[in-house]
Amino acid sequence: MTILVIAEHDNHALKAxxxxxxxxxxxxxxxxxxxxxxxxxxxxxxxxxSISGIAKVLHAEADHFEHHLAEELTPLVMSLTAGVxxxxxxxxxxxxxxxxxxxxxxxxxxxxxxxxVESADTFVRPIxxxxxxxTVQSNDPVKVITVRATAFAACPTTxxxxxxxxxxxxxxxxxxxxxxxxxxxxxxxxxxxxxxxxSGGRGFGSAENFKLLEPLADKLHAAIGASRAAVDAGYMxxxxxxxxxxxxxAPELYIAIGISGAIQHLAGMKESKVxxxxxKDAEAPIFEVADYGLVADLFKFxxxxxxxxxxx
Amino acid sequence: MKIIVxxxxxxxxxxxxxxxxxxxxxxxxxxxxxxxxxxxxxVEQAVRFKEAGQAREIVVVTIGASQSQDILRTALxxxxxxxILIEAESTLQPLAxxxxxxxxxxxEAPQMFILGKQAIDDDNNQTGQMLSALLGWPQAxxxxxxxxxxxxxxxxxxxxxxxxxxxxxxxxxxxxxLRLNEPRYVKLPNIMQAKKKPLTIMKPADLGVTLPSxxxxxxxxxxxKRSAGVKxxxxxxxxxxxxxxxxxx
Lengths: 312, 249
Description:
The structure holds two protein chains of two kinds. Chain A is an alpha/beta fold.
């Protein structure tokens, strides 16, 4: 039996969450094949061959794989399921979009967003926005799983010597077409993989004030995040949202500024190693999960903190 | 155009859930229940299509116990035309739900399904995608904007890193993200009118569906508690702690 991991990439580079997914797959005990499907993604496939723990890289090229539409990738993955015991992908919008389709066509259940592998058929996954953890067991012949990247370490990208095998592309389905995308451009690290995340909340009061975080983030090489309240108020675009309905992050340092700490926000960041909370309300629930809390006005805090960092 | 909107009854989003002491699940007795927020957004979207003259009929459906009629009435009060309750145990998982919805599609012949992207109880985020695959229809998950034309629908999706717009051939399956719309507040006269709208009750067997077994839940526990740390007096102390105690900067 083999394990099939579906790589997430943009035809140029592998998305980091794929490496965490491979780590989860490695705990299942069989040989792992990594599927890299796209258009002109040879470099991604070639680069993936050095990832530690991969048996084979399966490389599929086609025009209709360019935008990784679930409808187009589903038949390809279905053509590769013989002898496969587990199919895994990151629990990103890519993986969540694709894997349930495959499970349905295999007539098996899908297991979303696992945070722990207990055994080859038993997994832990958060439910109720992380307010409870369910241990679930699947008796299905194939386990179809999305993996919460922050719950598993990234596997090393060197040391492997997997062969790259070109596989036959399946025919286009053509029921849906890609029109356009607007991706947030940023020089800063990606929110879900950054070592440090600085998030702001409704306390900032305006989109203009939210920009105060930028020089601070640059100084710390941090990613910027936002609470749902800040997103709903229009201070930041939704893809910066940290929380149950946004991104789940677990950086080494999470700094929450002007965030009260609604349950849904905590669900997105409480696995961070060190949490700092800065809020002018001493009773704000965010302090209940913070390692270091500072009761302060954020407009005073930001320049002071920034100046203190300069002195190091 | 006929639209089917599947909805789910869940613990109200404002209720703090409690894990049962026997670890079999989460306490639902005497807890306030409501329509899943993402499903409510789906109903709202369907009603907006109808108000814009782009949809003829909206059918809401839920699969669950008899009590689930309350959320169907909510959806009817928002503007859905009729409701279907498929009576089954409430612990059915997405594959079973998708199979029931597929069978219903064969009976009702809708041109569109709009569903919430996930239910806030099990957080599975699977049903729409599974239904789409079983029907062989295109899908657009995590929708934040939808625009209908004669035989296609353009959907802007909330993806990691930004937005993506797809064009789908109809019939299609759409799942809603939070920012698609803000559901309307239901007024009392609408609630009264909703009581007169048709609500049909059926069983899975009426649709000829044999339910698959689901994933077995072995136990449900509370997550490890994070203990509150210390309050620092000022920025200098904070920087000192981060540098020398936590060693993260």
